[in-house]
Amino acid sequence: MATRIPRIATREQLLKHAARRVPINPTARRLHTTTVPRRNPPTPTPRSNPQTPSKPPPPKTARVAPSSLLLTSGLLASLFVFSQTHDDDDHDDDTSSRPSLSPSPTTTSTSSRDPSLPTYRLSFIRHNHGPTSPEPWVTLGDKVYNITDWIPAHPGGDVILRAAGGSVEPYWNIFSIHHSPHVKEILEGYLVGYVSPSDLGPDGKPPPASIEDPFVNDPIRDKRLITHTLKPRNAEPPNGELDKSFLTGNEMFYVRHHMWVPDDAGEGEEELVVELPGGEERRYTLGELKRRFKTERVTATLQCSGNRRNDMTRHAGKTNGLQWGVGAISNAVWEGVRLGDVLRDAGLEVEKGGEDQRKKMHAWFVGREAYSASIPLAKAVEGTGDVLLAWGMNGEVLPRDHGFPLRVVVPGNVAARSVKWLSKIVIADEEATSQWQRRDYKSFGPNEGASPDWDRAPSIQEMPVTSAITGVWVGECVKKVPWMMGGGDNNNNNNNNKITSVGSGQRTIDMAATPQKVGFTAKPTTPTATPCPKTTPDKEPIALQGYAYSGGGRKITRVDVSLDGGATWDQAELVDDCSNPATPCYGSKSWAWTRWRYNGTLPVLSLPPASFPSTATAPLPPALAKVGQDCEDGFGRSVGLMGRLPNHKKQCTTLIVKATDESYNTQPESHKGIYNVRGNLATAWHRVKICPECTKGNGGKGGLVWNTGETYGCGFRKEAEEVREGMRAASESTGNGK
Amino acid sequence: MATRIPRIATREQLLKHAARRVPINPTARRLHTTTVPRRNPPTPTPRSNPQTPSKPPPPKTARVAPSSLLLTSGLLASLFVFSQTHDDDDHDDDTSSRPSLSPSPTTTSTSSRDPSLPTYRLSFIRHNHGPTSPEPWVTLGDKVYNITDWIPAHPGGDVILRAAGGSVEPYWNIFSIHHSPHVKEILEGYLVGYVSPSDLGPDGKPPPASIEDPFVNDPIRDKRLITHTLKPRNAEPPNGELDKSFLTGNEMFYVRHHMWVPDDAGEGEEELVVELPGGEERRYTLGELKRRFKTERVTATLQCSGNRRNDMTRHAGKTNGLQWGVGAISNAVWEGVRLGDVLRDAGLEVEKGGEDQRKKMHAWFVGREAYSASIPLAKAVEGTGDVLLAWGMNGEVLPRDHGFPLRVVVPGNVAARSVKWLSKIVIADEEATSQWQRRDYKSFGPNEGASPDWDRAPSIQEMPVTSAITGVWVGECVKKVPWMMGGGDNNNNNNNNKITSVGSGQRTIDMAATPQKVGFTAKPTTPTATPCPKTTPDKEPIALQGYAYSGGGRKITRVDVSLDGGATWDQAELVDDCSNPATPCYGSKSWAWTRWRYNGTLPVLSLPPASFPSTATAPLPPALAKVGQDCEDGFGRSVGLMGRLPNHKKQCTTLIVKATDESYNTQPESHKGIYNVRGNLATAWHRVKICPECTKGNGGKGGLVWNTGETYGCGFRKEAEEVREGMRAASESTGNGK
């Protein structure tokens, strides 16, 4: 066996295999308004590696050591359409590290040029060999390639036409899989000439300004969003906006893109193609969908599998991918038609076969250009699954950033399944699905004959339970908490920023005001104290708020809060937003997040003395010895001892939230226990460390302020600053700061 | 508000309230073959506390401090029919502490007797005032009571008739709620005379032999079961038998009873009553059910909410209830008819109203005598819910211990919902369900006006993900592991105790042989070594096996094993029992447990030197310093330091298993994080500490043996011994050892 098939195959082999096996994505040919004619026959690269295997090897991401594999198995990282079908992740690591469009290091010098080949002006290429021409060309550095014959074999489908008439560089920077010698080698087979010296800069390459920016037509986003990458745009709302209201405003809904936002789609212009297992196709215009099927609404939270990844990085180690805070999650009312209705209309016999069969079959959603994902057919068609083909969001037309004109919404599943800019749905029978899942890699890997890891851990569909703290108020700040203004048990029917009774003893909260968050803006709570107090006050009030969410439509049944690092717990109040007439929850199950809030009393903490040594070896102050168990991410372990470690400078306490859903599953205690190198499903208890400090300057008097720790308090001041700094830097390097 | 309603109400008030509100359980009147006529009007106790509140107070179990309340809310402990409906628990604490039938301390002396009342012989009472007489009497100590007028008001229904003609004492010992002054007070109102002095012993009480044993007709159980209580019987299979086969043998299936096993039911003799929301009733004999509806099979695991409770006790603190090991779980094929089919036939319009409505309505299952529980109607009627009314178990007639002649099987839910000896099903509309759930306690509790804790945490229905290690083999013992005999990758089609390929690269394991478990019988692995080795061998092999299970039909997608206390992890092999033609898995979802096995290599550990000090302060041996992080329940914390603590005597390592289900929920890391005083849902990572030791006696040579720790290794030697000792003691105290 081992001699027949090489263990390590080249990228090129993978590409060639993909070219043979995967049909061209037909929707991509409608990228620009006219259709590019298909070339026949497909011509693979002329300089291929002769050692062509019958089966490709596993991708490298699946070769991570088992001890770090938790939850990462089945996560194949390629961005090609064919391999994304069962990719659970949001593909962060393919995009996050390359936000800028700086040219790739493919520098050539004209001296190495083949003198037998002609040169072309960039304007000539742009006008005569663009996406709609019968002979599309691309450039890379100073070289010109005729990719006409390569297009049918291109694993990413006709997306390649997006680059036709210009440079492929910006696209290779997005689809980083191209940064490989083998890809270059393929391209070299299509060399037809060179860029005219008149179009080259002093470095022998076309100047950056001559390279078209694929993101030039991206929509303008709300400035409050915290941006992780600009191109493609990935951004989350700041904590203060995240769960201020039950429904996230469309402009504040987190943005997760792998590329540019399609700009040439018009309502009714595109057709949705439904392909049945037999290969029959049925086409629908958006107008038809709206007219012929019953319009439904579903209130559903979407959450990226990478939400809270930054938490995992901080508490368990480096992870690859966008370092989301707690905001890669948002909630909206979606409007559209039931996927099941459309599939039945298209001729799919969904009742045929049992539930088992429906779990093995998949509905595969192909987005415009290079993204697709699938869900089990059982979820796609079951009445209580509530999967929508949606065109509306919170009562408005679906914004371009969220899939205009049509997207899938798969409530309760990882948001990667809710494919935006939907162009095609393929229903795959068991065999095809099985092929996608196994990708013929069955008998490969270090343990030949055994199932490789990524075959033993199915892809993520439903999301596990999670929660986060998004607001903290301490001391005098508690007076500014909107839902505290109504008082503890003083129910009333005033909807203005107060606790409101909505029947059944439940209360709803309007958090319209944007309060001061302790993590963002520390306010002296005892401003007239002088000198600095030695400890925090007895019975210092604290208020917390946040969200909790579980996949699969499982309702949040309780949220527990600890103010002392996990030593003691109390139950938080769940906000019954679904009972609020203003925000009814549409759908069969609990697809929306649950907001919670809590108020309590902090333990007494010692303030650090002015001369508190940075390498403290002295006995701990009594108050700290009592509470200090949580000066790291404690839970009663590491008792007191951490306080003696050199890097421990402050007396702090850790606020924790954890949620339980109706299946009584709850969150893991630590990210160490669920660590995986991709940083997916970072669902451990959410911890925010807060520390008292004495500040002077208030007319010479000392005041007590509270801060989140230097590396704790995900989503709080320190993190927000870091993220903004990164955004600014990226913006400067590309000259695009919008 | 506080003045209107007393904060602490008496048990009697509760009883009185219940008497007014709850209908008598009609099925209980068929306890013996004739029916007892209903007496009218109901007469409440004549000596009631005058402070009768309009609403009863919360029961004490709900008053636990919030910090210890996790997962216990909603767990009301009364054993009365009316209050069990939403009781998630298996009611352990009501029975476990009273396995014997020793008389309660109600000693009276004849000198305190009312001389105006007559005396009766016990034989007279037995023959003339038994369950079928128009005037049932009971005795308590030397007193005789005519309970005729109390029966309609008795919160537990006509179960009280079980005691008629004899002493109530054995029943009060089972239903421990009666051990309260207020209950006694109620009974005193019905005093009609005294037991004749001829029937009293020297202590002024009837001799124990004169008191009928309600358990006299209990079935005889398999001697291999580990018995927690004899009367009622609660027992679990030992680890060696638990998951030896995919389907647990009927005789080894764990037994969870609240009382005696009904002995007077015959097939066809009893009728199942279905009561619809309007009050209409429909009756079915077992024969009718079998003839008129399609017979279905479902392969489903049942698990007690108290499974692994002993783990929580050991790792997090004292819990109330039966101290189950890892064996309060078993798996079987159930045969019967779909509950949904029967409900539709009975006239229930299940499609009426949405999913939301069906979640709010409940199907309430009433067992014969004093047990009932409910499930949301959505689960009861959905096609993929697979709820059965079952008469068959693993191809045999349902055994008496498991509900003969008819029981409910609710796959994926806590086993407390799978009511045995089913007599009635009540479909309750939203209002009635709501009443059960809220029990009118809405505005009570420490925070008047706020929802009390038990109203904020709904009852357990679906079970969260859990797993356990049930077999450990080390060193030479690994040669005896059945599924290791086939070799690592040597797939073959021989089904005899070897790894067997069943297609798709999956393997199934026949564990027919009962191997030596390291926890039970330590075997020298290096029997000829002399003197004692200083460390365990390099690359010492280890093999583990066990089970994993998640509720709600969620498939187990991966099981991870750590051999070093959580520092590193590896994936276990999942046994694909469902693909084995001998054990197909019936049903729409993954209702059965998943067995797993793992083989690996232990880290090198130091053996304790002969003079190893019990209060070691010396530096740790290097090998221990490297591995010793897990000498407690570590996970890399408490690093090394535990080795210096006085009670640390051995160099050990902790084996851990944790499972992940298809919703990607996983198990909590520690029981401290989910501690609740009832010890429910003890689903933390399962840990088994193993320790090397040098033993002599093998012809004077030293041999390396492995032991589970003294308090670790739930279900292993130490625990088995403790449990057997408890069983023996209980048996001796009652004279009933069967």
TrEMBL record, chains A, B:
<feature type="compositionally biased region" description="Low complexity">
    <location>
        <begin position="97"/>
        <end position="118"/>
    </location>
</feature>
<dbReference type="GO" id="GO:0043546">
    <property type="term" value="F:molybdopterin cofactor binding"/>
</dbReference>
<keyword id="KW-0560">Oxidoreductase</keyword>
<feature type="region of interest" description="Disordered">
    <location>
        <begin position="87"/>
        <end position="118"/>
    </location>
</feature>
<feature type="region of interest" description="Disordered">
    <location>
        <begin position="19"/>
        <end position="64"/>
    </location>
</feature>
<keyword id="KW-0408">Iron</keyword>
<dbReference type="InterPro" id="IPR014756">
    <property type="entry name" value="Ig_E-set"/>
</dbReference>
<keyword id="KW-0349">Heme</keyword>
<dbReference type="GO" id="GO:0006790">
    <property type="term" value="P:sulfur compound metabolic process"/>
</dbReference>
<dbReference type="InterPro" id="IPR000572">
    <property type="entry name" value="OxRdtase_Mopterin-bd_dom"/>
</dbReference>
<dbReference type="InterPro" id="IPR005066">
    <property type="entry name" value="MoCF_OxRdtse_dimer"/>
</dbReference>
<keyword id="KW-0496">Mitochondrion</keyword>
<dbReference type="GO" id="GO:0030151">
    <property type="term" value="F:molybdenum ion binding"/>
</dbReference>
<dbReference type="GO" id="GO:0008482">
    <property type="term" value="F:sulfite oxidase activity"/>
</dbReference>
<keyword id="KW-0500">Molybdenum</keyword>
<dbReference type="InterPro" id="IPR008335">
    <property type="entry name" value="Mopterin_OxRdtase_euk"/>
</dbReference>
<comment type="pathway">
    <text>Energy metabolism; sulfur metabolism.</text>
</comment>
<dbReference type="InterPro" id="IPR036374">
    <property type="entry name" value="OxRdtase_Mopterin-bd_sf"/>
</dbReference>
<feature type="region of interest" description="Disordered">
    <location>
        <begin position="519"/>
        <end position="540"/>
    </location>
</feature>
<dbReference type="Pfam" id="PF00174">
    <property type="entry name" value="Oxidored_molyb"/>
</dbReference>
<dbReference type="InterPro" id="IPR001199">
    <property type="entry name" value="Cyt_B5-like_heme/steroid-bd"/>
</dbReference>
<feature type="compositionally biased region" description="Pro residues">
    <location>
        <begin position="39"/>
        <end position="60"/>
    </location>
</feature>
<dbReference type="GO" id="GO:0020037">
    <property type="term" value="F:heme binding"/>
</dbReference>
<dbReference type="InterPro" id="IPR036400">
    <property type="entry name" value="Cyt_B5-like_heme/steroid_sf"/>
</dbReference>
<protein>
    <recommendedName>
        <fullName>Nitrate reductase [NADPH]</fullName>
        <ecNumber>1.7.1.3</ecNumber>
        <ecNumber>1.8.3.1</ecNumber>
    </recommendedName>
</protein>
<feature type="domain" description="Cytochrome b5 heme-binding">
    <location>
        <begin position="126"/>
        <end position="196"/>
    </location>
</feature>
<dbReference type="Pfam" id="PF03404">
    <property type="entry name" value="Mo-co_dimer"/>
</dbReference>
<feature type="compositionally biased region" description="Low complexity">
    <location>
        <begin position="521"/>
        <end position="535"/>
    </location>
</feature>
<dbReference type="GO" id="GO:0005758">
    <property type="term" value="C:mitochondrial intermembrane space"/>
</dbReference>
<keyword id="KW-0479">Metal-binding</keyword>
<dbReference type="Pfam" id="PF00173">
    <property type="entry name" value="Cyt-b5"/>
</dbReference>
<dbReference type="GO" id="GO:0050464">
    <property type="term" value="F:nitrate reductase (NADPH) activity"/>
</dbReference>
